[in-house]
Amino acid sequence: MNKRLIILISLRFLISSKGTTLLLSAISLLGIFLSTTALLLTTGLFHGFEVSLKDKILSTTSHIVITSVGGDIDDVYGKIKKIPSVKEAIPFTLYTGAVSSEGIMQVVNVKAVDYKNEDFRKRIERFLVDGNIDERGILIGDGLATTLGILSGDKILVISPLARRGVVGFIPKTKEFRVSGLFSFGSFEHDFGLIIMEKERAKRLFGKKFSLEGIEIFIEDPYKADPLKIILQSEIGEGFIVRSWIDLHKTLFSALQMEKIGLFTVLLLMVAVSSFNIMSLLFIKMREKIKDIAILKTYGMTSKDILSIFLLQGIIICVMGLIAGTLASYILGFFINEYKLISVPSEIYLVDHIPVVIEPPSVILTIMGAVGISFLISLIPARKASKERIGRILRNE
Fold it and tell me: What is the pLDDT of residues 251-262, one digit of tens each?
């Protein structure tokens, strides 16, 4: 039978719906539309959060970190600076200490760097919110400054855990520093738990023991950090540990990925539930068009043609709902992003709002899943309609 004729008959059966069948057609279409919109928007929000989180992490933390476990950092630094893809390389020494002001004490990480390093100055200036870089002073996070109740230009006491023997016993080493500037990275660990000092001054206060030496590396394409990490590890040899930002945050992004897959699967079940309305519709359609089936078979239509007509009706409803749902999700996503409608506390989630980023693979998987489910669901009533015999139909009617 002519394929064009089968399509025309399928459309005719859909358009001629009245009463209960018309209502059920509308409910089936609405169910697919709503479930598709919900699926794409929700997965888009999850992906948008992941993208925003990655951008935030990559803007504030190093792309690759090399830490020394006995190797000479100065030798490695010279090799790294020769790599074309490396934009910035900042040697650092990390200590643990405390700061105190007006009776308030806070344990902090102390990052000691060379203030003359151009890469360091270029990077930290992007995040300075007050003050400047002064070799005699220290830089602290704006969150820590608020906790201590100080401003740029005030003095605070920096305390080293390494004690020295005095007349009354062991006394922690302390030194007063002026806060020359405040920075804001937008993350709790930096803004509330980090101070930056000039390398030589930190060495005199904290000594050489109980410290961690390393190099922070920033590259042109952060998503190529893993291949570069492997190259660096092979070139610099033993005595160093090389980790990329992916290694440092692997647990977080693995958890997000698993949640996204789980959520997609659950929401796809909504599409399956909505598709059952199509099955009910086609069963009613079959009883409503039973005479038409007999007439079409009398004129030479085969059971396969009848099967195609009813299958096509279910797929048409599904595709119409999918198109409408996909368009609606993109339109709603645009307004959510434009007006930043989904706000979240930045001190907890690192970002102040969650955008909707709908991935083409998500759209393709949704379409394939929905059409596949609708096909299987429509196959049951379609097979039932195709097996109706002309003699039995005419006898019963």
Answer: 888 888 898 889
Indicate whether 52 and 93 sit together in one domain: no
pLDDT tens figures, 193-206? 999 999 999 999 99
Are 308 and 215 in the same domain? no
Question: Of the residues 201, 219, 237, which one is the last residue of a structural domain?
Answer: 219
Domain limit, last residue, from 167, 196, 219 = 219
pLDDT of residue 71: 86
Q: Please count the structural domains in the chain.
A: 2
Same domain, 49 and 102: no
Residue 261 shares a structural domain with residue 364 = yes
Rounded-to-integer distance, Cα 240 and Cα 73, Å: 9
Rounded Cα–Cα distance for residues 390 and 337 (Å): 58
Give the up-direction half-sphere exposure of residue 227: CA atoms within 13 A in the CB hemisphere: 7
Q: Which residues pair with 183 in a beta bridge?
A: 128, 141
Same domain, 267 and 308: yes
User: Taking the complete model, does pTM exceed 0.85, yes or no?
Assistant: no
What residue numbers bound the domain in which 283 lies?
3-57+252-396
Say what the alpha-carbon torsion angle 68, 194, 101, 148 is, to the nearest 10 degrees: -170
Q: Which two tokens stand for residue 171?
A: 């006394």
